[in-house]
From TrEMBL:
Organism: Microbulbifer hydrolyticus
InterPro entries on file: ABC2_TM (IPR013525)
Membrane topology: Multi-pass membrane protein
Subcellular location(s) per record: Membrane
Name used for this protein in its record: ABC transporter permease
Keyword Signal (UniProt): no
UniProt KW Phosphoprotein keyword: no
First-listed, main subcellular location of the protein, grouped into a coarse class: membrane
Keyword annotations of the record: Membrane, Transmembrane, Transmembrane helix
Classification of source organism: Bacteria, Pseudomonadati, Pseudomonadota, Gammaproteobacteria, Cellvibrionales
One Pfam family this sequence matches: ABC2_membrane_3
């Protein structure tokens, strides 16, 4: 088996196209994730809500209280709200002509808040203005009650105070929720080209038949090919993990309220738990490619094969399903939970990681035996 394993590894690592694909995607998504995070924080910190006030002279107190570093307020003599919103302004506040008179008569004057809900910034701008106007309205009510000798507590029988009990780890889970799925996707993509080439590709090149004529069991052939394919996939996942950890200091996680909690032991654990999964993905891709009718058919089938589990993982994240501990025995699902916990610094039970990895390895052994039986079929070489 040693010469066969050496031959498969040399062929896999000499394939520049597969090697470049594995390396490029492994480095691409951490860079995109870091760049997207930096851009998002920079955009939020630099964004200033632009407010246009129509008839501001009728409510000088409101105009004065709206001034703040987060709001760029402009008092205009005239203008059409729709045209102002189509221009540079996010919100338009219009005071009616009788605003001052009705305010002095305690008759609740009307003001209009114009927004364009089709703009992405309008929701944030509307919340900012409504919060400030609500605070000023409460202040005026309190002053009017105090002036008439009425205790403001009569209108507020209780006080609501919100306290955030989230931890840096839980906040980090929201931002880094997609990272485990991308790491697993990296493994799939890094294995794809080599898995197709070493199975359907060898069959079309007529180099698989001489290999099967050699006096060796079929499980050794499948095992050698699996190790060669998994080596590239594992390399891709290790590169992605290393790039992500190296780029984390450049990401403004502190500004998002996230504390870096990944330790050296956590990084090593992430690399180790990806190895059994790399073997499972490699052997499954090889089996599917052997069942395909041609090289192109194998590429199509494996492309669909790598999308299906990622969609499942995304659905679990979006639905925020609380899974029981025994779900960690299931490949992909368990790996997603472990990677997420190791990234944000949550405690990941070693028992479940070890048990889930053993289950994954057991599935690898079963798949190898299935592949060995498939190699005995004469129809395997005639597929075209």
């Amino acid at each position: 088996m040693a010469p066969l394993l050496r031959k498969e590894l040399l062929e896999a690592w000499r394939d520049r196209r597969a090697l470049i694909m594995a390396v490029c995607f492994s480095l691409m998504f951490p860079v995109l994730l870091a760049g997207g995070t930096i851009f998002m924080v920079k955009k939020q910190s630099e964004e200033v809500t632009k407010v246009a006030l129509l008839g501001a002279e009728r409510a000088p107190l409101i105009s004065e209280r709206l001034q703040s570093p987060d709001l760029e307020v402009a008092s205009l003599d005239s203008g059409v709200p729709r045209e102002l919103l189509a221009g540079d302004y996010d919100v338009v506040v219009e005071f009616t002509e009788d605003f001052a008179r009705r305010y002095q008569d305690f008759r609740a004057p009307q003001l209009y808040l114009y927004v364009n809900s089709s703009e992405s910034s309008s929701g944030r701008a509307q919340r900012d203005i409504q919060e400030r106007l609500g605070a000023m309205q409460q202040l005026v009510v309190t002053q009017r009650l105090a002036a008439r000798g009425v205790a403001p507590q009569l209108l507020a029988p209780w006080r609501v105070e919100t306290r955030d009990v989230s931890t840096p780890s839980s906040r980090g889970a929201l931002i880094l929720a997609t990272v485990p799925g991308l790491l697993i996707m990296t493994l799939f993509i890094a294995c794809l080209a080599t898995a197709v080439d070493t199975s359907a590709g060898e069959r079309e090149r007529l180099s698989l038949e001489p290999l099967l004529l050699q006096p060796m069991p079929g499980w050794q052939v499948i095992t050698a090919k699996t190790v060669a394919v998994a080596s590239l996939g594992w390399l891709g996942s290790l590169l992605a993990i290393a790039a992500l950890i190296l780029l984390m200091p450049l990401m403004p996680l502190a500004e998002l309220g996230i504390q870096r909690a990944t330790t050296v032991g956590g990084v090593v654990a992430m690399g180790l738990i990806m190895l059994p999964l790399a073997l499972l993905v490699a052997v499954m891709q090889i089996l599917l490619a052997l069942r395909s009718q041609s090289f192109k058919d194998a590429q199509t089938q494996l492309s669909i094969f790598q999308i299906a589990p990622l969609v499942m993982l995304m659905m679990l994240d979006i639905a925020q399903v609380k899974l029981a501990d025994h779900w960690q025995l299931l490949p992909l699902v368990g790996h997603q939970q472990w990677l997420k916990g190791l990234l944000i610094g949550d405690a990941v039970p070693p028992f479940w990681m070890l048990s889930g990895s053993l289950v994954t390895l057991a599935l690898v052994v079963a798949a190898v035996l299935v592949g060995a039986r498939a190699l005995r079929r004469e129809s395997l070489l005639s597929a075209s």
